[in-house]
Amino acid sequence: MFESHHARIDRRDQGGYGPDSERFFTNASSITGERMPELFHAVYGRGLVQELPAIAHRPYLVVTMEDLWSTFEPLLSKGRGDVHIVETLQRSRLDSIADELPPHASVIGLGGGRALDVAKYLVWRRPVPLFLVPTSTSVNAAFGQRAAVREEGLIRYVGWSVPEAVYVDFDVIRAAPADLNRSGVGDIFCYHTAHWDWAMANERGLTEPRWPYRREQVDEARTVLDRVLAAVDEIHAVSDEGIRTLMEAHRWGGAAFNNAGWNPRPIEGAEHFVFYSLEEVTGKAFIHGQAVCLGILLMSALQENDPEGIRKAIDRVGVGYRPEDMGVTWDDVARALRQLPEYVQRAGLWYTVASDRPITEKFIDYTREWLSS
Ligand SMILES: [Zn+2]
Description:
Blueprint: H1 21-26, E1 42-45, H2 52-55, E2 60-64, H3 66-72, E3 80-85, H4 91-100, E4 106-111, H5 113-125, E5 130-134, E6 147-151, E7 154-158, E8 165-169, H6 170-174, H7 178-182, H8 186-189, H9 191-204, H10 215-229, H11 232-237, H12 240-259, H13 270-282, H14 288-303, H15 307-317, H16 330-338, H17 340-346, H18 353-356, H19 361-372
Parallel strand pairs: 1-8, 2-3, 2-4, 4-5, 5-8
Antiparallel strand pairs: 6-7
Helix pairs in contact: 4-5, 9-14, 10-12, 13-14, 13-16, 14-15
């Protein structure tokens, strides 16, 4: 049933739900034009961390991870106050930490998702100027207002912290494992499946009343997606251009949920539900983009939405989406798929292909073989 798809991305080949290519291309420059929504101030370059002591209000608090601190400590000595090494995302613990911190005039958050989330949370609790330095391109945490924290075992996105600037240092990013950097495409490539879901729900009259289908939101996200699709080799190489392209996409995506009126539909769909379900059945922690890429492949196949084309893009970036790349088995994936419609209902998630098309044993067998090849 999937063999008829060409191994390329073709916007007209999306089961009738994709935006037409002509309209897309006339809007291609809009992302840098007047339609640009509010995004965080991002600075790209080299040697950026060593400049922070000259600009951060003193004494500044550094929030980072244990394994990064030895590298950055010598660069952040002048004017520094305390250092908080992140050990927990537990909200109740972070509240006590916020209360107990010695006085500080600004916060520097330095690290991947967790360090940046904790920096944002602490600044929300005790507002001071914030400077963020992402150390990989794996997630968009540097570019979203809310912080991911853990409450009663669940991740919740809370708070409101906008940094003075986000400093993206090419050499700092390149020091992170290449796999981690490449996995960042997952949160952009997911627009491919998310847009099909939204258009399908719209056609069925099943969109949520507060999230009616908006073509211009889809077009804007599509522009961002296409820029990343055009840079897959640079992103694979973790070149300056690849880092900049992926981070600019995260910069749009990080603020998009808020900019769309807290509507997740332009940026997220059933592919994320697969990831949540897989997390639930295995109880394991995943590299977000790897599990999301597996979800994109499975759900684009269920949608019959050019699964070969998006797979080719993921393969060129080099994201490890096979279960063995993530320390799980195909049986785990099969269990996550079998419970998917029920999981979506239980979690109160929106109407997507996961609710619209049954996941049969035949489909599970087919995708197992397809993704093993
Ligand atoms: Zn995501």
